[in-house]
Amino acid sequence: MLIETERMIVRDFNSDDANDLYEILGDTETMKYCEPAYDFEKTQKFLDEFCIAQKGAFAAVLKDSQKVIGYILFKPWEESVYEIGWIFNKKFWRQGYAYEACSELIEYGFLELNIHRVVAETIDSQKSVGLMEKLGMKRESIQRGQTKDVFGNLADLYLYEILQNGV
User: Fold this and answer.
1) Under a CB-based contact definition with an 8 Å cutoff, are residues 83 and 140 in contact?
2) Which of 30, 31, 70, 149 has the fewest Cβ atoms surrounding its Cβ within 10 A?
């Protein structure tokens, strides 16, 4: 799969992406709403076993430098429904890259894969919820105290969705 945006290419991961993916998954601040930061060995295993072998995620790559700046989960959740999630290198936050890549991937899902719904979840009530809403996703629910954050504190889980017809 290959999607081209104005500034990026969204493509399958490959084994050469380990160092760039480690810059993302190995950063404590970047991972604070996901899970503890990965060491390089865990990043390599995740890349090989999930991103490549299972084709469970896509790489968001800058066109000009070919640097992987984002990890985008986009996989079947149930029949005709996909789950989307993203983690971007903090050096590229607040520059519109996540929106650019995710909006194209959602459109690809609706037009090419003919899915009818895309869902997302987060405990990050600021940045991630803001991006979900910018992507046109609607809040489905907030599950209070549903999960724990990386520090072991109870956290609310925000569930969002967007339908193919926008309704």
Assistant:
1) no
2) 149
Measure the CA–CA gap between 129 and 20, rounded to whole angstroms. Answer: 25
The model carries a pTM of 0.90
Residues 6+ apart with CB under 8 A from 12: 1, 2, 52, 55, 58, 59
HSE, side-chain direction, 13 A CA sphere, residue 117: 13
Tell me whether strands 117-122 and 138-148 are parallel, antiparallel or unpaired: unpaired
Question: For residue 139, which of 160, 163, 164, 125 has the smallest C-alpha distance?
Answer: 160
Please, which residues have CB within 8 angstroms of residue 124's CB and are 6 or more apart in sequence?
33
CA torsion, points 53, 54, 57, 60, in degrees to nearest 10? Answer: 30
Instruction: List, for residues 44-103, the tens digit of each pLDDT value.
Output: 999 999 999 999 899 999 999 999 999 999 999 989 999 999 999 999 999 999 999 999
DSSP string of 107-122? HHHHHTS--SEEEEEE
What is the crossing angle of helices 127-134 and 97-111, to 10°? Answer: 50
